């Protein structure tokens, strides 16, 4: 019984603190930035229909669009950048190399650097993650684990918008 009372008390305190932080009053100054533009960072693994759709969307919402690719093999990474530049010469590609087969760490460092630059220019940062959605729900277990991990890490970053571009598979 004491544990339940403690949990209820902590829950009530949480909600009591939450309300004033979210409420908008006429007399208060809003603590919301007034951005001049938007930098959209699109995480790409390859040139696919999912990425094509995400790039079109990114161009529609962003003043600057940067594609980011993380590879674990230098030769394949170089080939990807060359292919990317042939297909999308208008979109800058940032190629990152990961020695430890980690995609999220180099990506997070890149986003931190881009965020610092965007803050100087009073721009917002949106990270767009292209993701295909299988027709059968259970098939999600076979895919999209990396994007889930990346989104979870990004949600902890202040003033970084995280968006998913879903591409629904037909079969």
Layout: helices, strands, pairs:
Elements: H1 2-22, E1 37-43, H2 49-61, E2 64-71, H3 74-87, E3 92-97, H4 104-120, E4 123-133, H5 145-155, E5 160-168
Parallel strand pairs: 1-2, 1-4, 2-3, 4-5
Query: What fold name stands as the CATH topology?
Result: Rossmann fold
Strand order of the largest sheet: 3-2-1-4-5
Structural class from helices and strands? alpha/beta
The oligomerization state is single chain
User: In this structure, how is the largest beta sheet organized?
Assistant: 5 strands, parallel
Q: What is the CATH-assigned architecture?
A: 3-Layer(aba) Sandwich
Gross morphology: globular
Portion in strands: 15-25%
Estimate the mean pLDDT confidence. 88
CATH superfamily caption: HUPs
Helix content: 40-55%
Q: Kindly report how far apart the N and C termini lie.
A: 52 Å
**Low-confidence runs:** none
CATH hierarchy class name: Alpha Beta
What Rg do the Cα atoms give? 20 Å
The number of helical segments is 5
How many structural units, i.e. domains? 1
Q: How many β-strand runs? A: 5
Protein name: Amino acid permease
InterPro entries: APC_K+_Transporter
Organism: Listeria floridensis FSL S10-1187
Mind explaining what this structure looks like?
The chain is α/β, with parallel strands linked by helices and 171 residues long. It has one domain (35-168): HUPs (Rossmann fold, 3-Layer(aba) Sandwich). It has helices at residues 2-22, 49-61, 74-87, 104-120, 145-155, and strands spanning 37-43, 64-71, 92-97, 123-133, 160-168. A five-stranded parallel sheet has the order 3-2-1-4-5, with helices on both faces. The chain is globular, with a radius of gyration of 20 Å. The mean pLDDT is 88. This is Amino acid permease.
């Amino acid at each position: 019984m004491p544990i339940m009372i403690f949990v209820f008390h902590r829950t009530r305190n949480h909600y009591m603190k939450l309300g004033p932080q979210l409420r908008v009053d006429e007399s208060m100054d809003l603590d919301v930035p007034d951005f001049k533009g938007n930098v959209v960072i699109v995480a790409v693994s390859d040139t696919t229909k999912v990425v094509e759709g995400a790039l079109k969307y990114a161009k529609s919402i962003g003043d600057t669009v940067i594609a980011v690719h993380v590879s674990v093999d230098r030769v394949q990474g170089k080939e990807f950048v060359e292919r990317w530049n042939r297909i999308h010469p208008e979109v800058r590609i940032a190629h990152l190399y990961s020695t430890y087969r980690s995609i999220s760490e180099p990506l997070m460092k890149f986003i931190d650097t881009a965020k610092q630059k965007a803050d100087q220019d009073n721009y917002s940062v949106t990270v767009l993650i292209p993701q295909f959605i299988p027709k059968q729900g259970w098939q999600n277990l076979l895919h999209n684990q990396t994007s889930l991990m990346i989104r979870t890490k990004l949600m902890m970053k202040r003033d970084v918008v995280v968006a998913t571009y879903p591409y629904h598979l037909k079969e």
